[in-house]
Each structure stands twice: as C-alpha cells, then as structure tokens.
Amino acid sequence: MNTLTILALSWQHILIVAILLVLLFGGKKIPELMRGVGSGIKEFKDAVKEEDKPGSEKKSSSTDNNSPSN
C-alpha cells in the first residue's frame, strides 16, 4: 500500500511540472510536441488493428504456398 502513495501526484505536483515544461520548451513548442505524440499513438493503434485482421495472415501464407518448389 505504501508504494502506491509514492506514485500519487497532487495538483501542486502537476502544476510544478506544467510550469517547468512551459519554461523549458516554451508555449509554442508544447502543442507541436503533443500533436506529434498524438499522431504516433494513432499510427500505433492503426498498426495493431492491421495485425489483428485475420485476412492479413492468410495473404502472407497464401503467397508462400504458391511459390514453385523447383
């Protein structure tokens, strides 16, 4: 139970981190960073969805089976 209290953040901690981020990166750079993070997450989700499709496995295995054995 004590380990969970170490990871708990209060609103003061979040405010301090937000102020430090604004000081380090500036007000204009933060939206660009968040936009990049968002597009990266979207690409990751799309890639996971493509791998989960059952048709994607059949396509790769059917091309291997059609190759000549000679």
Brief summary of the model shown:
Residues 47-61 have a biased composition (Basic and acidic residues). By secondary structure, the chain is mainly α.
Walk me through what this model shows.
With 70 residues, this protein is mainly α. The chain has helices at residues 2-7, 11-25, 29-52, 54-65. It has one domain. The protein is built from 4 helices and no strands. The protein starts with a helix and ends in a 5-residue tail after the last helix. Mean pLDDT is 77; it is low at 58-62.
Summary keywords:
4 helices; mainly alpha; 70 residues
The end-to-end span amounts to: 65 Å
- How much beta, percentage-wise? under 5%
- Residue windows where pLDDT falls under 50 for at least 5 positions: 58-62
Cα-atom radius of gyration: 23 Å
Helix coverage percent of residues?
A: over 70%
Structural class: mainly alpha
Number of domains: 1
Largest sheet: none
The number of E-state strands comes to 0
- The topology string of helices and strands comes to HHHH
Mean pLDDT over all positions: 77
Overall spatial form: elongated
**SS field, number of helical segments:** 4
GO cellular component, one term: TAT protein transport complex
Function: Part of the twin-arginine translocation (Tat) system that transports large folded proteins containing a characteristic twin-arginine motif in their signal peptide across membranes. TatA could form the protein-conducting channel of the Tat system.
Transmembrane segments: 6-25
Family: Belongs to the TatA/E family.
